[in-house]
Amino acid sequence: MRGDETADRTRRFQDQVLIHLDAAYGLARYMTRDPAAAEDIVQDAFLRAHRAFDGFRGGDARAWLLTIVRNNVRSWAAARRDRAEQALESLPGQGAEIADDAAPTPEAWLAAQEDAADLRALIEGLPPAFRETLLLREMEEMSYRDIAAVTGAPVGTVMSRLARARDLLAAAWRRREAGETR
Amino acid sequence: MTACPDKAELLHGLLDNELDAAHARELEVHIATCPVCAEALVELRALRALLADPALRPKAPAALRARILADIGAVDPLHHVSKSQGRPRSRQLRRWGGAGVGVAIAASLLLLMVAPFGGDAALERELVAGHVRSLQAQHLLDVPTSDHHTVKPWFAGKLDYSPPVPELAAAGFPLQGGRLDYLAGRPVAALVYRHGAHVLNLYVWPDDGPRQPAFEARDGYNLMRWRDGGMAYWAVSDVGVEEMHAFATALAGAVAAQNPGKP
Asked: Are B2 and B36 in contact (CB under 8 A)?
């Protein structure tokens, strides 16, 4: 019966994909730094996943979903950058918060983070490519291979980004601790 | 503080368990003689411990979950959100359009399957308290092993019943071990499963209960209760309701596989 099939498909989607809702939201939230945008991105990602679910043949549903979330984040960031560039034509390079190419230098980033209130803000301040790699590893405990699949980067790049992300974060955290005890 | 340049990235590989055995051994030999790299690894472990804080993992808002469930034609077991509530649907959803009759049927089926359980507030409090205690004290596990063939016999001399101890790693819930707890005036089996960074305590004892899983939220934890083969099951965790349901489904499948022939 058609109704049974639909119910079964819905059940399977919930068991295999929707269980990763917090993972999807966490990634979108940290990458956009904007709760409302994160919600829209995640809702849209689940719609896309649901539409494509019949074509999903097993495998790692979380990696599959997070890839969709990541692509949505990038589209969102690109649209935002376009708007920002139109608004700030006389100030090239400003307003591009998410673009990989426009990431600040680590030194500039560290300087800007000296007064960061907490670890979460420090993570949110990491350059995007480092941030997403760190999140997939530390929050989602994904293997380098899975992170490579989600981010489209080679495994070697995953390891070096992870190393850089942790070094930046540890350095920023040390600075914060030193500032607090002064 | 700064590791040897040729070792710096490898330390991350070691921390993440991504090195092959030969490289891992080689690096460990180096670390044993290089205080700088040893210190760097200690720092990496400290950072990982910092990042393990659950407060760093934002939970999806309940309203978002409800909207997605509405999008896919399911019903949120905890938050029955009427259409007038929540944010407007996205453009994609409008194109997605009506899944129609099937949605209504799916919704009614889910309503039948998931009903809130009435009642035993004192027991629920005990269960949540037991779960929280297991997380705080070093009393999470009496038998810390992922081998269910070890956990099951361990209970044999301590309980007057034999709880099923299925391994559910394939469903994303690796068994961590077991523990003896005292609940509802009797010693009961507590099985500990992990799901990502979350811990799930499963309490099992001979009792009655609803045949279909029933949910309750208490103090920020989700409780799920059901009955199977003369045993009452109570799962307590901070994982979401969907994960709980996936857990119950996997568990029921594994228990049925362990007891072929029994209804």
From this structure: yes
B59 in reach of chain A (CB within 8 A): yes
How many Cα atoms are found within 13 Å in the side-chain-facing hemisphere of A1?
7
- Residue ending a domain, choose from A50, A81, A101: A101
Residue B75 near residue B110 (C-beta atoms within 8 A): yes
Pairing of strands B143-144, B175-183: antiparallel
Boundaries of every domain in chain B: 8-52, 62-113, 121-258
| Nearest C-alpha neighbor of B148 from the set B186, B181, B192, B188 | B192
The CATH class of the B121-258 domain is: alpha beta
Measured between alpha carbons, how far is A179 from B231 in angstroms, rounded to an integer? 56
- pLDDT tens track for B120-176: 677 777 787 777 777 765 556 777 777 777 888 888 878 888 888 888 888 889 888
State which residues form the domain around A54: 1-101
Alpha helices in B34-189 (DSSP H): 35-51, 62-71, 91-96, 101-113, 121-136, 148-156
Test A47 with B51 for CB contact under 8 angstroms: no
DSSP assignment of B78-121: S----TTSSSPPPHHHHHH---THHHHHHHHHHHHH--PPP--H
Looking at the fold, whether A4 and A94 belong to one and the same domain comes out as: yes
Residue A51 belongs to domain with CATH number: 1.10.1740.10
- Check whether residue A32 and residue A14 sit in a common domain: yes
Interatomic CA distance for residues A12 and A61, integer angstroms = 11
**B113-132: pLDDT as tens digits:** 443 444 567 777 778 777 77
A137–B93 CB contact, under 8 Å: no
Q: Which residues of B touch A172 (CB under 8 A)?
A: none
Q: Using CA atoms, how far apart are residues B238 and B217, in angstroms rounded to an integer?
A: 9
Give the total number of structural domains in chain A: 2
Rounded CA separation A40/B90 (Å): 7
Chain B residues touching residue A22 (CB < 8 angstroms): 57-60, 240
Q: What CATH number does the domain containing A148 carry?
A: 1.10.10.10
Examine the fold and report which residue of A79, A101, A123 is the final residue of a domain before the chain moves on.
A101
Q: Are B173 and B196 in contact (CB under 8 A)?
A: no
